[in-house]
Amino acid sequence: MGCCQTTFPGNISSFNTSTAALLENSTIMSFSPCRYSFIVEEGWFKFEPSFVSSTNFASKYTNGVPLVLDWVVGNGSCSEDIKMGPQYACQAMKSECVNVYNGPGYRCNCSQGYEGNPYLQGGCQGISISVVFFMVCIFALWAEYQKRKLAKEKERFFDQNGGQILYHQIMSKQVDTLRIFTQEDLKKATNDFDESRELGRGGHGTVYKGILKDNRVVAVKRSKIMNMAETDEFVQEIIILSQTNHRNVVRLLGCCLEVEVPILVYEFIANVHGDVKSMNILLDENYMVKVTDFGASRTLPKDEVQFMTLVQGTMGYLDPEYLQERQLTEKSDVYSFGVVLLELITGKTAIYHDGPKEGKSLASSFLLAMKGESLEVIMDSSIVHAGMEILLREVAELGRMCLSSRGEERPSMSQVADKLKALRSTWREKLVLEHGKMEYLVVRSSPPGSALHDSPSASMCLTVPHMSGIGIETPR
């Protein structure tokens, strides 16, 4: 009581099914009233228990079940029936006989390059050369249409992104430091923006390592969005950035404007501003500081204020005055730099986590520590040494001044740079001496055969010569 199934063997001429009850009584008929057999496509039928105890199968498939029939002509093979003359099924001149292997008979197909009915005389016709030519022409026209469509789209994006303005300035020699790249140039340079070339990914876009035709290595920034209302300002900004030649600023080499969102090309920095933050401050192979990512920056004449309808920047570094009043000034960057200064002396990030609690503001925690005379609690213990208290207190005080809630109470960036240069000049000899002592102690305390750089303290101390050699240039 249930069901069974089997497959048809090949090479048979007929098949018959029948069903019969093994036992015939009222008890069996009461719960299994039906019996049936059927031929169906292999793999289609899925047994359900209700099919045994009811008429569900018949009611479910009232229109029947799917059946696949394999058909042939004749009862012989190709080699036999081709001798039969008019009775041979493949009547067309350009036809071929195909044997079947699961029974007697054969089938006919039109020869390659022909189509039609192989069972009729003259039924297979050659595919017209004119038709082939027509299809080739259609494909060529379609390809040309797509090419022109892409070219128009690139032209539209180029104009939309201020390309004409920039092009005329380059041609008139007003700008000679910027190169306009094509999309193909940058695809080749970055191996079609391959993930293996990614240098970094942020909220505004992704930076890739690129290699130009002349083997120059560059950084290619592919942004996500752009405000179309600021096209003129965008062009002016990239012109200014391309002409900025400062040892502490990553230079803009060029751009690609024939895409929906412009792609920027910068000089490549091996080690890794309205948006001053530690992630945007890089070190090159000689440990020279390079500031990059001016996506949220604005050029402002000295002492001027710009009203912003949309706040841009990174939380933890944003000037509270800018957040509240939407006014961007040169003192906004001073606040952000103050946070970077705190990151250096505390070893914490702008928004840091102290245990399982939600993120804390480094600026707020630092100011509370300063107010409560508990600065040592928040300082990075790896840089706190005897004799360094005065230096760290002066750096902390400079950070506090940068973090003043009112912009007018903050020092200018020139004043900040001058103060740091003065501290470096005063403390350089002391820092080098401290480094020598620490290096000596680490070497003496290291077990034989151990690598000096395996010690966290040693790693920290070995960076001091580089730190003492970093240039601080007063902004002009």
UniProtKB/TrEMBL annotation:
In its keyword annotation, does this UniProt entry include Signal?
A: yes
| Record has Transmembrane as a keyword | yes
Give the domain of life.
Eukaryota
Localisation per UniProt entry: Membrane
Predominant cellular place of this UniProt entry's protein: membrane
GO terms, biological process: cell surface receptor signaling pathway
Topology with respect to the bilayer: Single-pass type I membrane protein
Give the matching Gene3D superfamilies.
Phosphorylase Kinase, domain 1, Transferase(Phosphotransferase) domain 1
Where does the chain bind ATP?
K221
In the record, what terms sit under GO molecular function? Answer: ATP binding; protein serine/threonine kinase activity
Query: What Gene Ontology terms describe where this protein resides (cellular component)?
Result: plasma membrane
Annotated keywords: ATP-binding, Kinase, Membrane, Nucleotide-binding, Serine/threonine-protein kinase, Signal, Transferase, Transmembrane, Transmembrane helix
Q: Where is the Protein kinase domain?
A: 193-423
Instruction: Cite the PANTHER family for this sequence.
Output: OS06G0142500 PROTEIN, WALL-ASSOCIATED RECEPTOR KINASE-LIKE 21
Name the record gives this protein: Protein kinase domain-containing protein
